[in-house]
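Hi C.,

You asked whether I'd gotten around to modeling the 227-residue construct. I have! Everything is below, sequence then structure, no commentary in between.
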Amino acid sequence: MKQLLIIVEDDKSLNQGLCRALASENRQVISCQNIRMAREQLALGGAALVLLDINLPDGNGLDFLQEIKAVAPTLPVIMLTANDTDMDIVEGLEKGADDYITKPFSLSVLRARVNARLRQATESAGRQVYENGKFRFDFDRMHFTVDGSAVELSKTEQKLLRLLVENHGNTLSRSFLVDRIWTDGAEYVDENALSVTIKRLRDKLDAQDYIKTVYGIGYKFEWENPQ
């Protein structure tokens, strides 16, 4: 499954250079030149890391950092900025940044820091067991239970469930889910395959009240017990 990295940088040439430098076979990089674009991308869900400038045309990156952390506290955010005083760095870290890199910077160091944060996030997610009164999902051991009874899920169903659960409460678009689940190189995947997989997952988990359809957009997992 590809990692999704979002770059928020208003300098177009620098943004494009960062996209080229950080893209890889297992990583998709999304270019955003302002906060509005970044907010729209984050709303789609699935981001693995945000690389964020402070001085942006439509707002302050530190304010946006706090907005991100309020919604997704475990999402790694690395500040990449020309604001390089000790006070700037301390402020960025105290407001929730996972790392703070000042311009000019070494591309190799930036790449290493991005890779380290992504690796830490992946390892942390891999160890996590999601559990509430009804479900227990252990993705690392591929063990899933509903009301204490084991349920067998296919690889595709596991991919879908993991995306929904790791982004619980957030709506994931149909196109995003298709792109992230069917990564075998097929040029075209019928979106009906997603509808079928959603139905199978709901039926197997007795999760009709938890896996919600957001009409015209996609799906979301409501982790809390619906009232």
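If it helps when you're writing up: The chain has two domains: 3-126, 129-221.

Thanks,
B.
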